[in-house]
Amino acid sequence: MYYRFGKVFHFISVLIFTFSFLYIYASLSEIVAYQLDENGGFLKSVPKETFFYSGIILFIILNVIMIVPGKMIENGSTVSLKRIFPKGEYLTDVMIAWIYSFGGIINISLMIMALFVHSINNQNEISSNQFSFFFYLIPVLLVIWIGGLFWILVQKFKSVQSNSLL
């Protein structure tokens, strides 16, 4: 049951990233700066198409890396996965939910970074100084989710250990 919430969160994060990334791409100039010097000039920049394609490729690669293990656990692709994560078990659902929700957190992080690049290039809309909160939010979310993974693994180890004693 819990894994459905993770799937919905991941799907919503994919939609939000897609719409925001397309909006950002449409509003950028032909040269996209991703680092400014102290005077506000472009220190490092790339063509608009390179920014778009590299962003989409990074998004697809990270999502495939995150979702394939979740699908393998969900479908019980191998005998060892079926044994470790049996269908219908509470910790299996929690693990699948964690995997999908972590993919959603990665998507939100990518969206925040794309919005930061947008703010660098369109200073009149959003100042890049207003993103300090979001840059602290990304590592905090990642640490919380990694902590959740360790909690799930500890619970799973306890469950396996108690079953082996019987």
UniProtKB/TrEMBL annotation:
Q: Which domain of life is it from?
A: Bacteria
Q: What keywords would UniProt list here?
A: Membrane, Transmembrane, Transmembrane helix
Bilayer-crossing regions: 7-26, 51-69, 90-113, 133-154
Organism, by scientific name, is Belliella marina
Query: How is this protein named in the record?
Result: DNA topoisomerase IV
